[in-house]
Design goal:
Number of helices: 15
CATH class of the largest domain: Alpha Beta
Organism: Oleidesulfovibrio alaskensis (strain ATCC BAA-1058 / DSM 17464 / G20)
Mean pLDDT: 94
GO molecular function, one term: hexosyltransferase activity
Protein name: Glycosyl transferase family 2
CATH superfamily of the largest domain: Spore Coat Polysaccharide Biosynthesis Protein SpsA, Chain A
Largest sheet: 10 strands, mixed
Shape: globular
InterPro entries: Glyco_trans_2-like, Nucleotide-diphossugar_trans
CATH architecture of the largest domain: Alpha-Beta Complex
Radius of gyration: 22 Å
Low-confidence stretches: none
Number of strands: 10
Keywords: Transferase
Distance between the termini: 35 Å
Structural class: alpha/beta
């Protein structure tokens, strides 16, 4: 008999965090689950750790492959999933104990293909926490609701497995922005979905904030916008596309412009090439208030660059990029990693119920993992 939920965990060099993720699956109040770990050619003990859990609990299945990237790894898990519903869990995050029970209750009650949950983002260093784009419980939602136009991550959702297979959900090979493409494919294919108000997911942020190399940011982060454009325009979802470009492409270009100089100027040319492809066929009016109202506002500062890309005015494109390069070089980022900021965040975390709960859950899971692994002679 098929389980109610398949939890798919793609894992690459995750021996440090995978035990907590797995413990959070096995302590679910809803026991009718399966856990699928797909090891993507890890060079550390990820496969050994997963194997220990598979031997200890028959609900854990492990699949091993050569390193093929996150997209293929997710697809392998999707192919092997037998549950009524599927949830993707990053190997360095963890689930609330009632996550499966709460999300499935909404899914079965409303008979929907997708349910969105809420998440807590936390710092392992300070245990400072924040809500990740909180949304209240609701039913009968469609993608016409602007609140879901910025739904960019797979991990806060459960999906009916047959729905994913029916629409042929794909996971592009981008190393950045991949979740977005898959999410928009699902959101533009589903008839209606529901929102669970429960905080079901805990997202560990510290080590995920490392700066990326220019080739990765240009050929993956910038390039993924082209696939997003294809998906959303095919669905006639122009406003969600404009919102995504205004909020994310503009941010990325401002961040990249000061870096694409000197020996790295070739990446500026590459970035421009991707953007010219991206803006091919887009209308300048789509980025103006007359079209965007009442749901959205125009990004006035972004408009000159938008118009230049649409008209393929290379001189103006270069002029606009130079403006953002100069602004970026003048901007001095606040040092939020110094001891004062760390201390301030730790004090704040001690006064916040959400932060205290997060710390308690994580420490409980760590103790369970340490005990299990020590019994197998593996220090952790």
């Amino acid at each position: 008999m098929a389980p109610k939920l398949s939890i798919v965990i793609p894992a690459y060099n995750m021996e440090r965090w995978l035990p907590v993720a797995l413990e959070s699956c096995l302590w679910q109040t809803e026991s009718d689950i399966e856990v699928i770990v797909v090891n993507d050619g890890s060079a550390d003990r990820t496969l050994d750790v997963a194997g220990i859990y598979a031997e200890a609990d028959s609900r854990v299945k492990v699949f091993d492959q050569e390193n093929r990237g996150a997209g293929v790894t997710r697809e392998v898990g999707q192919q092997h999933a037998r549950g009524d519903y599927l949830l993707w869990l990053d190997a360095d995050d963890f689930l609330d104990r009632d996550a499966a029970q709460k999300m499935l209750a909404v899914a079965y009650r409303d008979d929907v293909d997708m349910v969105c949950g809420n998440a807590v983002v936390f710092s392992e260093k300070t245990f400072n926490t924040r809500r990740y784009f909180y949304l209240p419980e609701a039913s009968g939602i469609t993608f016409d609701d602007p609140a879901y136009w910025k739904s960019k991550v797979l991990w806060r959702w459960i999906f009916r497995t047959n729905f994913l297979r029916r629409i042929g959900l794909t996971h592009p090979a981008f190393k950045l922005g991949q979740d977005v493409c898959s999410m928009y494919q699902a959101l533009t294919s589903v008839n209606r979905f529901s929102q669970c108000g429960h905080f079901m997911y805990y997202f560990r942020q510290d080590h995920k904030r490392t700066s990326m190399a220019l080739p990765l940011e240009v050929d993956h982060q910038i390039a993924h916008f082209i696939e997003v454009k294809r998906i959303l325009l095919d669905a006639g979802a122009v406003k969600p596309l404009v919102k995504y470009l205004n909020e994310n492409l503009f941010r990325d270009i401002k961040k990249l412009a000061p870096r694409m100089t000197g020996e790295d100027a070739v990446w500026r040319e590459r970035c421009v090439s991707h953007c010219l492809t991206l803006f091919e066929g887009l209308e300048p009016a789509w980025f103006r208030s007359d079209f965007l109202a009442p749901q959205l506002k125009e990004q006035t500062a972004f408009l000159p660059l938008v118009d230049a890309f649409i008209s393929k005015d290379m001189q103006e494109i270069e002029a606009q990029l130079d403006i953002w390069k100069a602004k970026g070089l003048k901007r001095k980022a606040a040092d939020k990693e110094n001891s004062f900021h760390t201390l301030r965040r730790r004090i704040k975390a001690l006064c916040t119920l959400r932060s205290l709960k997060t710390r308690f859950l994580l420490r409980s899971l760590e103790r369970r993992a340490r005990r299990r692994l020590s019994e197998q002679g593996i220090p952790w």
